[in-house]
Amino acid sequence: MKLMFASDIHGALPATERVLSLFAESGARYLVVLGDVLNHGPRNALLPGYAPAEVAERLNTQAARIIAVRGNCDSEVDQMLLKFPMTAPWQQVLTPNQRLFLTHGHLFGPDNLPPLATGDVLVYGHTHIPVAEKRGDIFHFNPGSVSIPKGGFPASFGLLDGNKLQVLALNDQRVIAEVAINP
């Protein structure tokens, strides 16, 4: 199964349009949205192209193919604009070989792990910093942010294709980080 990951959109319409274009080209079955979808958050400046209502409209065109979790900047009011559920603090996706534990990263994350089995994957956003690596017995994967990248990284998204997790630059799809997740 091929999955695409986007995190920390923060209401940025240009980033949303780029994500949806790449999603259409990717051949991914689902788009996993890791929270902070519509609001910029109190610590972030308003982004160029900040248009949360339009972001909701664009994402709603793919509602049947979106799996989403709630971020720390998301609210009940946001759900009123979105046609896909996004208020769960975490979700799980089972692949033939492992479990992907999906969360935004502010409740569960690298410093507060949920119960995971050997070979499982913690998939999170929140930090806006790309990660694709094995730590101990589990894999950590953060696709970075599509709108407000941090740590000197470009805006980015993620892909799971077979047993390979990749973080790719949003503009040129250059590989930023990758890890093979073996059964």
TrEMBL record:
It is an enzyme of class 3 (hydrolase). Its EC number is 3.1.4.-. Belongs to the metallophosphoesterase superfamily. YfcE family. InterPro entries: Calcineurin-like_PHP_lpxH, Metallo-depent_PP-like, MPP_YfcE, PdiEstase_YfcE_CS, Phosphodiesterase_MJ0936/Vps29. It comes from the Bacteria. This is Phosphoesterase. Gene3D superfamilies: 3.60.21.10. Keywords: Hydrolase, Metal-binding.
